[in-house]
Amino acid sequence: MNIKITSRKFKAKDSLKTFIKDEIKTLEKYFSEILDCNVILSFTHVKDSIKTAEVIVKLPGHTISVEVSTDEFEKSVSQAVEKIQKQLIKLKTKRVDKKKVASRKLKPKELNED
């Protein structure tokens, strides 16, 4: 999985980058076919110091995008990763359910052929 971190209008510290990479790598537990992951960090309001993290995960046939704003980048990234985890679990269960339905449809045909 390729992880690309972009910080807009500021330079992200190395500690923040390693935190983001560790958080993103946890997504592989839920879905092993992740192709790319882009993380975009930005300030939305300079006075209020609202920090936004946008996480875009590219999968075969799907793209999942989440944007979260909080007062710290670490919180924003953690919350975005949690939302993506939920979406990955939902996507994976849909795929498994489709396979189960397809296998159920094949079994009666196999019984008729005998």
Automatic annotation (TrEMBL):
Pfam families with a match to the protein in the record: Ribosomal_S30AE (PF02482)
SUPFAM superfamilies: Ribosome binding protein Y (YfiA homologue) (SSF69754)
Protein name: Ribosome-associated translation inhibitor RaiA
Species for this entry: Stygiobacter electus
Gene3D superfamilies: Ribosome hibernation promotion factor-like
Superkingdom of origin organism: Bacteria
InterPro entries attached to this UniProt entry: RHF-like, RHF/RaiA
